[in-house]
Amino acid sequence: MSHICFEVLKNALRAVVEKHGPAADHFPSIKMLVAEGEEVCPTFCEANAQDITIKIADEGGGIPRSAIPRIWTYMYTTAESQDLDPDFNKSDFKAPMAGFGYGLPLSRLYARYFGGDLRLESVDGHGTDVYMNLNRLSSSREPLM
Asked: What domain range includes position 19?
């Protein structure tokens, strides 16, 4: 779950800064909502939370509808390639935080592997809402097929 949240928040932060400019005086908030689902057992015993849904909403400009299918494709990225500084020293190497095109596809794969899902709704020109549905029960079985 921490990997998924990190990737989605990183994308939201980058989108907001790229849309509003790094020198902006004020950035719109990135909103995170965590909701616990409930399932009432058939014998009317105490309700048990089965899943958790996390919604992360940004105002980073959104994604054009034509690009939505590509965001789930490995190696597709909207991040600018990062050029090395001319004074680059191998001992100073720091891996870039974005640009490989694995963040969202792997995050969705992890969510589905553990019995959840990752969905994205975007309004081009405004922002993006990402919904993470995560299974809270430790009894979920490992999907081998």
From this structure: 2-79+98-135
